[in-house]
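Fold it.
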Amino acid sequence: MIRHVMGHDLVADTLGGVLDWAVAEHPDSVFALFDDEQYTLGQLDDMARRIGAALLKSGVKSGDRLAALMYPSPWHLALAFACARHGVVWCPLNVALGIDDLAYTLNDLQPALVLLDDDLQTVLNEVRSGDARMAALPLVICTPTARGDAPAFSDGWVGAERAEGKCEAAASDSLAIIYSGGTSGRPKGIEVSQFYAVSSGLRLNELARFGKRETFFTVMQFSHAWTPLTILPWCLLYDHVFAFWRWWSASRFVDAAIRYNASITDVYAGMAATLFLGDAAKDTRSIPATRSIAGWGGDEEISKRIRRQFQERFGVTTLQMYSLTEVGPLSCVEWEGEPQKFGSSGKPRGWYDVIVADNEGMPLPVGEVGEILVRPNFPNILAKGYVNRAPHTLHTWRDLWVHTGDLGRYDEDGYLWFVGRQGHFIKRRGELVSVSEVESILLGIPGIDEVAVYGVPSEMSEEEIKAVIVLKAGAQLTGQAVVDHCAGRLAYFKVPTYVQFVAEMPRSATKQEIERFKLKALPLGEPLRPSGGRRPLGYSK
């Protein structure tokens, strides 16, 4: 076992091992808060061991992949614990996935078992009805309203039997696969190790003077690496409280933060903007939280405006970080107590080398913009690579550096400033959206000849999606029909807000490539919303 790293003495070098240690140390401590429920470590451990027995009985073994199409819940948390302890690779999927992107993800993942919440069966049934391989996948249904003291799974899958014993995984063993937006092509599964999570919890503890028994109220889904692979191990390692809910709601945020007595949260810029709209803006109550650790959008003026507004409204100190799943969180981060340069992402902290480089990978002078490259100073703190994409993994991890595809610059004091994204994707609603994925869905609509998708400014920070379309001769189509088609096949955050039809695309004289900068000069047009299908849950009121 790894004993020491970056000045830290370790209780374990695997997430499963940290869980074993925490349960032994604090079995009766309240560890998790969910809505009006609270769970001790001992209760969650019992749930996890019962799930572990069910996994073993189902034939799921160490190294197998388990897909979880589930909202955050105590049972989903216990499932993550069980997978970590038994070496099963936990794959939390975004619950907003539409038919096409769920079918793609499951085919790419090829899990040994799928667990899903009962109200998400409709979209999965659509996938299974059109794909024989998917129809053969073993399923277990979870009832998300069930409490920890009652079986929550279909067909008595979880019973009273418990799987005893401690975690036998190694630090380098795979812990989870997180699907992220692709810089090109479809989203990629990013495989991370057990120590990836442990080291993330250690890094989080370095950035502020945390007190005893802090409560971190995370507003993110489990399909984002940040919540289960950073906040969760931090709470286990340092005896803090993990507070979470089913889904973001601007109108319920203040109430939830007060109920949890949250001292920390991770509201990011796009979510913060919704707190100043509609009914949510009428709530003038304060919240107990003193810090928000999140991605605040960098040096963009709209992001800084929302960040200041959030700080002034709630009296919360915001700490900006630079991270991506491939390199782990907090590769650069603001530290509490250091001079803050508003809009920067702070400094590297010794776990990683972080440089800004030119097209040849050579470091650039202070002030010059280039690609952000990252490499670790300790093993197993980077992702292991992309699932089923060895060439892409080798390309991204080339020259012993992870080439992030992000643009940034350093200032004279060593602060990193995130400038933008080099890759071909859009940041919307806290999610990365692959341009080519949306374009491929649009090209499946009869009558469309060409399409170009790109990001446009949004009042909510980040971006909205616009599609510019050339129709085939004689074809007729409305923007609303385009949006409705996408809404039935893609996650809500991938559906275009703006649609414009043009006679032809502007192209370069030499390579005849679409000149997207000219498209971005077009008038924005009127925003469109899906007229049917699933409600976009991410921004409920």
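The domain at 347-423 is CATH 2.30.38.10 (Luciferase; domain 3).
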